Design the sequence.
C-alpha cells in the first residue's frame, strides 16, 4: 500500500465510530445474536430428531443451562437497562435462581450450583474457575480430591461476596 492510499485508509478509519475492539457495538451484537440463533436452531432440530429417552452428557446440559442464563440476563438488560441495580446496593436474589441452585445441590451437582451463584453475582473469575472444575469433573467422571479441595477454597470468596450483595443471603446459603 503506498503512502497516499495509507493516508486515505487511515482517515477513513478515524472517521468511523469504533470502540476499542474495532467493532461497532450494535452491529457486532446483531451478528453474534444471529449466529447464536442459527446454532440454537441446529441444536433444536437435532434434539427434536432424538427420542425423549436418549440421555445427554451432563457437561453438555450444563453448558446449555449456562448459555440460557446468559441469554436471559442479556435480554433482561437490553429490554430494561434502567432497572440495573447499583453494585453497592444490597438486593434480593430471585427465588427462581435460589430454587434452581437448591435443586442442583439436591442432585449432588454442587459445582454447578456454585457456578450459578457466581453467575448471578457476575463474578467472572469464579465463573471461569467453576466452569473449569465442571470440565475436569466431567472428564474424570467424578471430582478428584485435589480439585474438591480447590473448589472448597473458593467458597469463602463466593459466599462472602453473596452475603454483601444479597439481602436474602440466609435463604441463598440454605440452598447449599
Sequence:
Amino acid at each position: 500500500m503506498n503512502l497516499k492510499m495509507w493516508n486515505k485508509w487511515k482517515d477513513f478509519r478515524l472517521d468511523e465510530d469504533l470502540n476499542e475492539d474495532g467493532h461497532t457495538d450494535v452491529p457486532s451484537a446483531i451478528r453474534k445474536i444471529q449466529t447464536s440463533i442459527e446454532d440454537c436452531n441446529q441444536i433444536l432440530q437435532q434434539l427434536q430428531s432424538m427420542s425423549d429417552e436418549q440421555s445427554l452428557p451432563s457437561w453438555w446440559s450444563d453448558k446449555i443451562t449456562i448459555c440460557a442464563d446468559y441469554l436471559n440476563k442479556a435480554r433482561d438488560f437490553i429490554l430494561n437497562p434502567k432497572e440495573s441495580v447499583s453494585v453497592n446496593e444490597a438486593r434480593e436474589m430471585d427465588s427462581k435462581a435460589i430454587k434452581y441452585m437448591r435443586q442442583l445441590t439436591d442432585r449432588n451437582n454442587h459445582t454447578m450450583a456454585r457456578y450459578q451463584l457466581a453467575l448471578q453475582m457476575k463474578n467472572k473469575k469464579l465463573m471461569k474457575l467453576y466452569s473449569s472444575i465442571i470440565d475436569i469433573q466431567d472428564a474424570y467422571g467424578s471430582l478428584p480430591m485435589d480439585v474438591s479441595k480447590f473448589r472448597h477454597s473458593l467458597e469463602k470468596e463466593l459466599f462472602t461476596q453473596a452475603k454483601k450483595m444479597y439481602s436474602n443471603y440466609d435463604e441463598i446459603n440454605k440452598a447449599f
